[in-house]
């Protein structure tokens, strides 16, 4: 939603200012210039990107429009889930959660947290870590190193759409110049025409540069930055899981391990100790 609002503000500010100065929109609205710039940009993107990257970018753009980000309720949910899992392990042993780990969708524990279940990588992180702990004698520091490696690899993958769109944004001013040069070439073919015809043709050519710069810094570049924030936010969310799991495997009590996770939640969405404690009490009741 905010992405759309921002785009509308850019359009209103730029074109509204142009109209206030009694500009003629028919000069700026040049479909052929847009065809040249965006056609070349999309073509270059396809040349540079394998199919996997194209799919990742399309999926990221869909998420960008939805504008869904993690809030305090999401973090409270994951802390409650971890608290429930850790408490069951402490009371009944690791074997007691084997069925939950093998089939999270049918688990009585995981099914209580539907939003968490929709995050496939978060579910895999928790279940795979618990499987590793159940089937091996991995040391806490080795587990932490393993999870760090996994999170780094996942974050690198999440950054692919941002980097790809950033590359497209960087190309737009140059492609705008290409469109402008083509416009100048066409203008030279009308050099014998009256001054008003040549002036209109030159103005049309300059629109290419204008559109390339505007699309780079007003739309595509900010989209790349937004996707980078989304990737970092996903990493922060998964890091909470990692810290809590490593703390529990290291011997911390369930409540302490959950507190370890709460401490690394970003400040703007971090629930207080009291809020989490009250939710845990309600869960036990």
Overall description:
This protein has 285 residues and is an all-alpha fold. The protein has one domain. Helix 8 packs parallel to helix 10 and helix 9 runs antiparallel to helix 10. The longest helix is centred in the C-terminal third of the chain and has 55 residues. The chain is elongated and about 90 Å long.
| Low-confidence blocks of residues | none
Sheet with most strands: none
Q: Which structural class fits the helix and strand makeup?
A: mainly alpha
What is the residue-mean pLDDT, rounded to a whole number? 90
Distance between the first and last residues' Cα: 38 Å
The tally of structural domains comes to 1
Q: From the structure provided, what is the oligomeric state, counting identical versus distinct chains?
A: single chain
Summary of the model, kept short:
The chain is 80% helix and 0% strand. The chain contains 12 helices and no strands. The chain has helices spanning 2-20, 25-28, 31-48, 51-66, 72-92, 98-102, 114-117, 120-135, 140-188, 195-249, 254-263, 273-284.
Give short descriptive properties of this protein.
single chain; 285 residues; mainly alpha; 80% helix
Present the secondary structure layout.
Elements: H1 2-20, H2 25-28, H3 31-48, H4 51-66, H5 72-92, H6 98-102, H7 114-117, H8 120-135, H9 140-188, H10 195-249, H11 254-263, H12 273-284
């Amino acid at each position: 939603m905010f992405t759309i609002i921002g785009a509308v503000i850019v359009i209103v500010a730029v074109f509204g200012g142009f109209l206030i100065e009694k500009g003629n929109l028919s000069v700026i609205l040049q479909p052929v210039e847009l065809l040249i710039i965006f056609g070349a940009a999309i073509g270059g993107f396809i040349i540079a990107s394998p199919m996997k990257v194209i799919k990742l970018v399309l999926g990221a753009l869909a998420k960008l429009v939805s504008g869904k980000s993690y809030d305090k309720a999401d973090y409270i949910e994951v802390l409650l889930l971890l608290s429930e899992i850790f408490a069951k392990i402490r009371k009944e042993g690791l074997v007691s959660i084997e069925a939950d780990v093998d089939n999270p969708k049918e688990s009585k524990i995981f099914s209580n947290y539907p939003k968490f279940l929709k995050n496939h990588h978060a579910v895999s992180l928790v279940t795979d870590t618990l499987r590793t702990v159940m089937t091996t004698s991995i040391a806490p520091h080795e587990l932490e190193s393993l999870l760090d490696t996994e999170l780094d690899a996942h974050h690198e993958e999440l950054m692919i759409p941002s980097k790809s769109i950033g590359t497209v944004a960087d190309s737009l001013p140059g492609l705008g110049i290409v469109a402008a040069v083509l416009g100048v070439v066409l203008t030279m073919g009308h050099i014998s025409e009256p001054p008003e015809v040549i002036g209109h043709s030159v103005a049309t050519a300059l629109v290419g540069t204008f559109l390339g710069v505007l699309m780079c810094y007003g739309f595509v570049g900010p989209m790349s930055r937004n996707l980078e924030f989304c990737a970092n936010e996903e990493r922060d969310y998964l890091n909470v899981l990692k810290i809590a799991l490593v703390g529990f495997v290291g011997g911390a009590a369930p409540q302490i391990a959950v507190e370890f996770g709460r401490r690394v939640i970003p400040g703007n969405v971090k629930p207080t100790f009291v809020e989490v404690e009250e939710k845990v009490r309600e869960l036990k009741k």
